Amino acid sequence: MSLNELLDNDLQDHDALKDFKDPTSLARSFIDTQKKIGAMVSLPGSDADADTSDKFYRKLGKPESAESYSLESTGLELDKDSVDQFKGALHTLNLTQDQAQGLVNYLAASSKERLDKVQLTNSETSEKTATDLRIAWGADYDRKSGAVENTVKRFFGDGADELRELAARNPAVSRGLAEIGVSMSENSAAGDTVQSDAENHTIDSALAKIREYQVDGDGPYRNRKHPSHAAAQAEVERLVAHRASEREMESPEVIAEKCFEWVMKNVFPIGNTG
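RE: above sequence
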């Protein structure tokens, strides 16, 4: 008996049933459809609770916990705390493992692209700075370049590498450091720079204190909002104004004080933290 013979008149020859020749084929189709419906995931409504939403995203592939993400850094350098926080954000955003890794890959590629651009710009700037200084200094180029290096090594300790890089990109910084180095060399040659150990110790202590103020980005000197900002400014001015008062010509250490004053004003301006 055909399927049509079993149906009510209004269902006979219906377009949706034209492919079914008998009740068995219709039944099989119905069962297959029910299986597919059972495997479907319904999108939670706007009023869905957290548990319902979580179950939905878990079916899509969201890991059970933030710790379950397995991420390849592909060049990103992150400490464990940063990685844990990042995974927590991924889990909060309901991302699947593949989506999370895709985001990491994008961030790594974007970071590398920015770094490459910065390095290229720095390289081009350094080449231009060297060219400009060779023209400006002429035959004195080697001597003044040596004076820059001597000043950096003598007075800037742990910050020497950063200052070298800055000087390589900024001719004004190079000229300032060169002037300090040349002045120290000339004064030393003139024999007017001999100081007692006590004087050297006093000046070295002052320079160390200035350096301490200069490198502390959240400290009272560089942070305008710090309650001791005014006092720190006054202290630095006092330290910078320190002189080897009994000498007609300034010693290298006194010149170095000027160096720190100039660098703090032109390289590490006050108040850049807030």
